[in-house]
Batch of 2 targets.
Target 1
Amino acid sequence: MVDKEQVIEVLKKVQDPEIQYDIWSLGLVYNIEIEGSKVKILMTFTTPMCPYGPVLMDDVRRQVSAIDGVGEVMIELTFSPAWSPERMTEEAKIALGI
C-alpha cells in the first residue's frame, strides 16, 4: 500500500530546474490523493509559462512511479490559485533569501 508520506519524501527530492529547490518546499504541490496503486498529484508551476514545466512533470511522474506499489501517476496541473512565495516552507524562504 502506497503511503502519502512516501510520496511527499520523493517529492522533496524533485528539484525545480529553474530555482534549484525541491517542489514540495516551494509549495508547488497542492494536493496528493492515493487510491490503491494510483497516485494523483495536483500541482502548479511558479509561472504558467514555465519553460521547464514538461521536464518537471516528467521528473515527478518518474520519481513517484519508482515507489514500490505505485502503478499509475496522474498529474493535474492548475494555476488556480496562482503560486506565490507565501506557499513556500519557512526553510525554503530562508534558503532562497525571501
Target 2
Amino acid sequence: MTEVAFHFGAPDRLAYTCRLLRKASAAGARLLVRGSADACAALDAALWSLAPTDFITHCDASAAEAVRSRSAVLLLDTQAALDTSFPILVNLADDVPAQFEQFERVIEVVSTDEQERSLARQRWKHYTERGYTITRHDLKLRTESA
C-alpha cells in the first residue's frame, strides 16, 4: 500500500520542497513533483538557483525521454498525465491526483497559509477514507523545539 506523508507548517513551501528534493535525490531517490504550472516554474527556478554542490538533476515532463531518464526530479503540471515510473510523488497541487496509489510514497507539502491548510485537510480526508494511514510531520513543532 502507498505510504502517505503530510509535511505541515512549511514557512516557505518552495524552500522546504527544495531541501526535501535535495535530501531524497542525494539518497538516490527519483521523485515526481506535481503542481500548478506556476508552482512548477517557481520550483524549477529555485532548483537552478541552488549552490552548484547542491544541484539536483531535474526537468519538465515535456523533456525528451533521454533527459527524463537521467533526471532525479520530474516537474509535472497538474494537467498532464502522471508518470508512474517515478516511485515517489511530491504533491504540491490542491487536489489528490488520480492513480496516486501507483506510487510507493506520496508526500504532501503544506505551508502555513490557511487556504492551503484547508485544502490539505480535504486531501487528508480523501486518503483516510480510502484506508491509508498517514504519517504527519509538523514542521512548526520541529522549528520551535530546535
